[in-house]
Specification:
The protein has about 240 residues and is α+β, with helices and mostly antiparallel strands. It folds into 2 domains: about 90 residues, Elongation Factor Tu (Ef-tu), domain 3, CATH 2.40.30; about 140 residues, Threonyl-trna Synthetase, Chain A, domain 2 (Threonyl-tRNA Synthetase, Chain A, domain 2), CATH 3.30.980.10. The protein has 5 helices and 15 strands. Strand 9 and strand 10 form a beta hairpin. Helix 2 crosses helix 3. About 25% of the residues are buried. The mean pLDDT is about 90. The chain binds zinc ion (ZN). Zinc ion binds next to helix 2. Pfam families: tRNA-synt_2c, tRNA_SAD. It is found in: Cytoplasm. Its cofactor is Zn(2+). It comes from Kiloniella antarctica.
Amino acid sequence: MDLLFYKDAYQKSCEAVITFAQNGSIRLDQTIFYPTGGGQPGDSGWIELENGDKILITEARKGESHEDIVLHLEEGPPLPAVGVKVIVHLDWERRYGHMRIHSCLHLLCASVVGDVTGGQISAAKGRLDFNLPDTAIDKIALEDKINQLIEEDHPITMDWISDEELDNNPSMIRTMSVKPPRGSGKIRLVKIGENVDLQPCGGTHVKSTGEIGKIKIGKVENKGKQNRRINLTFAD
Ligand SMILES: [Zn+2]
């Protein structure tokens, strides 16, 4: 399956051929739908059939492998047959919210000293958990720092790198805010600005930090002895 969202996270619709249809779910030969994973929810949207009928796609999920994405459909309408050509459309407003919040969580990660232990993304808010000792977090200073990085409009770029290239660049691993997984062969790196943030990530991001828009830091919660949960939302 061709994963188009890796090439262009801004593609809102595409033509595709049904390659599997069973039990309320389908597979396509290529897709713009990001599957649930890495704290980012799977995309939703709809299928447009040749006769103009629409079938809602409730969630994209990973199938049997990394490149296998299954689209789950609303119950009711008959499934289109294998081999049929359709047009699929993203719920773009929701996905764009995920892209903005997800990109902002990279800025949060880069602005807090401590290892990330978990996170969650929705279209309007997000959060990260940090493994931090019992230290106070200055919410106002953190909010100012992130909003400054947003205002500075740093480009966000993607690159693929092999395990071997990583091994040959130990300094690159040192500068990463999240350590790359080993043994997958190829790792996707997401870079913000020249040295704002660098980390392995398979999610969808905006093109530059300015697109995130102003944010505010919400509650900072204690979740266990060393765990601080930092919440953020859009400011307006
Ligand atoms: Zn990411």
